[in-house]
Design goal:
Layout: H1 6-19, H2 24-36, H3 40-56, H4 61-77, H5 81-94, H6 98-119, H7 122-137, H8 141-154, H9 159-171, H10 175-188, H11 193-205, H12 209-222, H13 227-241, H14 247-257, H15 261-268, H16 270-281, H17 283-289, H18 293-305, H19 309-324
Helix pairs in contact: 1-2, 2-3, 2-4, 3-4, 4-5, 4-6, 5-6, 7-8, 7-9, 8-9, 9-10, 9-11, 10-11, 11-12, 11-13, 12-13, 12-18, 16-17, 17-19, 18-19
Length: 335
Amino acid sequence: YKAKDFAGAMSHYQKAHTLDPTNMVYMNNIAAVLFAEGKYQECVDQVEKALEVGKEHRAAFTDLGKAYSRLGNALVKLERLEEAVKAYDSSLMEVKDGQVELKRRTAIRMKEDRDEKAYLDPEKAEEERQKGNQLFKEGKWVDAISAYTEGIKRDPTNHLLYSNRGQTYIKVMDLGSALKDCDKCIQLKPDFPRAYARKANVQLLCKQAHKAKETVEEGLAQCPGDAELKQVGAKVQQSIMGVGLSQEEREARAQEAMKDPAIVNIMQDPVMRDVLNEMQTNPAAAQKHMMNPDIARKVETLIAAGINKHAEQRMVLSISTYNCAPSATSAPPRY
């Protein structure tokens, strides 16, 4: 068998079985040859006979476990994956084996992938999207989410399903799920402006104006002049300026921003700490520092997050010089 002389191996295994028909090991060896020869159904039949003999004569757990494992291997080759998983489960009940556990997990993934592909149907996905749209209009948010989710199962490449479900998640204030759907929509179709607009709205609801600003800028880079993005951009700018916000709300926004690792990194940057300290005491320094694109970008991020009011005051003083500087980063977007 090791020399791949399967005909010779089969002859010896059959003779051994004839001499001791109560020993399942020889029957399992015959099944191994059948498997090596690609005779998978014959292998299955042989292993099942071996298991009957083994159970009748109280074979060792290890021998039963090997037989069930070989049965699972043959069933995988026949694409009978659900049966294969059961065979691997039976093997693991007899004896724990890391390799068998790995094969079991692989068979499960194969079955899941096959089932998902068999379920794909773009036409039914569109039907579910239209159904979800109607439910959305009727204010039945949970049912709409279910319809969009079913549509995604039918066609996970349809960006509109993620966009619509994301909007519905906003209605039920599941902002984390809404953000994930917006990101997925953007991934599928980077030039779809509504996804950026909805993502920015979610970030505003999460008190993350600095992130919403970045999202709008990314969207406008993909879709210049989009009216909806410009409208959301105006809301973002008002939020950054604190229009209509109480002092308590401003503080809450700043506290929320401090949960952002990017903001924390800026605040812990020794160079930025020195820059911000100098900007507090020297207006001329603000103009000088804003000539550096990297520093200007970080200062803008802090201001958008509502973190550093001193930086904002100095930014206002230096803005005209900053906008005109040839080496500066791009001016704050005018939405």
